[in-house]
Write a sequence for this structure.
């Protein structure tokens, strides 16, 4: 049984308008909405999950859209950039597409020998499309406009910005099984060999930067992937033994979770592969209907009344 962390599971960010968020990720970026549910801690708010066909861990970006959220800003103690892997030769397609849809983007640049195209979603969330040094073999979700030649394969990496990288690096290396691959200036690339893809975390050390504000257009937490509940609980012990506060196991319907704040200030989650997104609807139907956890099902009518109407593409 693989008991190491299996790279990224999902990343969760905060959005403003739900429809605008849905249009951007499903249409412009060509991801699949694999689950339309509510925030289990705030059922008057949607929780959208975007990913590949089945919502494989390592492809899932999730949002809480709050219509009147105030904008946040990036800074230390948070995940500041999300990296998606795309095929070699596709960046021109994406730059043209972003131009067409008036997406904020900047010139492609190189990091650790890999080309990347920085862009922002409509709420200002910072993302990069990255051509990985080694081709990403994951099967993409495709649409009429975004075909397999260009489509994102899932996460390449996440960037955490920190005042001091040391305590966070220790969590990655001593508990999660990552190791330092390379350093470029104040940017340190950590990688795990436990998975083929979505196994990179870049730590950026920025001692003079002020702390970020988690609100609209910023990342709320980063979830790392474990095989199952048994491994999840082994990690709970290891993290508690470090003297860090960690939640009990929480049932998120599609996975089981633990949350803890790593010493650099970023909210980390550990999430299981089981049971996955097909637990309450067929793979062909993923994302079609509003799914509620059992505890909210009796309130479905009231919840549906509060949630904004979403027009499908
Ligand atoms: Zn999460």
């Amino acid at each position: 049984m693989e008991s190491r962390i299996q790279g990224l599971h999902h990343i969760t960010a905060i959005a403003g308008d739900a429809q605008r968020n849905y249009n951007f990720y499903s249409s412009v970026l060509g991801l699949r909405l694999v689950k339309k549910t509510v925030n289990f801690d705030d059922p008057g708010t949607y929780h959208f999950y975007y990913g590949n066909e089945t919502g494989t861990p390592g492809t899932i970006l999730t949002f809480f859209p709050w219509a009147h959220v105030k904008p946040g800003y990036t800074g230390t103690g948070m995940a500041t950039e999300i990296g998606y892997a795309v095929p070699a030769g596709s960046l021109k397609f994406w730059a043209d597409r972003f131009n067409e849809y008036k997406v904020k983007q900047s010139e492609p640049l190189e990091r650790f020998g890999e080309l990347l195209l920085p862009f922002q979603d409509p709420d200002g969330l910072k993302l990069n499309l990255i051509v990985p040094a080694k081709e990403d073999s994951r099967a993409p979700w495709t649409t009429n406009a975004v075909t397999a030649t260009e489509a994102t394969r899932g996460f390449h990496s996440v960037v955490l910005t920190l005042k001091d990288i040391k305590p966070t690096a220790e969590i990655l290396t001593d508990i999660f099984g990552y190791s330092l691959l390379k350093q470029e200036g104040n940017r340190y690339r950590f990688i795990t060999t436990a998975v083929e893809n979505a196994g990179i975390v870049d730590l950026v050390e920025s001692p003079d930067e002020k702390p970020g504000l988690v609100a609209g257009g910023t990342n709320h937490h980063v979830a790392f992937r474990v095989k199952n509940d048994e491994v999840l609980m082994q990690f709970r012990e290891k993290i508690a033994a470090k003297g860090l506060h960690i939640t009990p196991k929480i049932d998120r319907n599609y996975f089981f979770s633990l949350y803890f704040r790593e010493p650099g200030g970023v909210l980390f989650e550990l999430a299981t592969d089981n049971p996955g997104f097909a637990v309450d609807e067929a793979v062909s139907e993923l994302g079609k209907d509003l799914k509620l956890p059992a505890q909210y099902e009796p309130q479905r009518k009231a919840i549906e009344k509060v949630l904004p109407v979403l027009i499908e593409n």
